[in-house]
Design goal:
The chain has about 130 residues and is of the alpha+beta class. Among the domains are: about 10-35; about 70-125, no CATH class. About 35% of the residues lie in helices and about 10% in strands. It has three helices and four strands. β2 and β3 (about 115-120) form a beta hairpin. The termini are far apart.
Length: about 130
């Protein structure tokens, strides 16, 4: 009596088809996310492993005047899904006037994630203005 291997083969084909469908759906979502991200005003500057206080000098970055914040104007991020006027004034102030705040981080190494993350015990952000 010869046994048929068809049921096992059908399961393998079905699993491969499901895997292909999952990969296709993930690829489509990523494509859409990349297309939406093109409209977000992000900086083209990258640092790699080390930033440091001398980063602008090492990279030859020159600013017109002193840099006050993470961004010049939160309104640059206005979109159908983000209304900068609805942002809390303290949050807007922080991003536009970051230099006025005393920031301190305590970073711990997390060997399982192969990265450093801010510790939950990081110092609070305090405004110096």
């Amino acid at each position: 009596m010869v046994r048929s291997n068809r049921p096992a083969r059908r399961w393998r084909v079905a699993l491969l088809a499901l895997a292909a469908l999952a990969v296709t759906l993930v690829a489509r979502r990523l494509r859409r996310a990349v297309a939406r991200a093109r409209d977000v005003p992000l900086s083209p500057l990258t640092a790699g492993w080390r930033v440091g206080a001398d980063y602008p000098e090492r990279r030859g970055i020159v600013a017109d005047g002193e840099v006050a914040g993470e961004m010049d104007d939160v309104a640059d991020y206005a979109s159908p899904t983000f209304d900068p006027t609805a942002l809390a004034p303290a949050v807007r102030d922080f991003y536009e006037r970051t230099a006025d705040y005393g920031l301190a981080y305590r970073v711990r190494w997390h060997p399982r994630s192969a990265s450093a993350r801010p510790s939950p015990a990081a110092s609070p952000v305090e405004s110096s203005s």
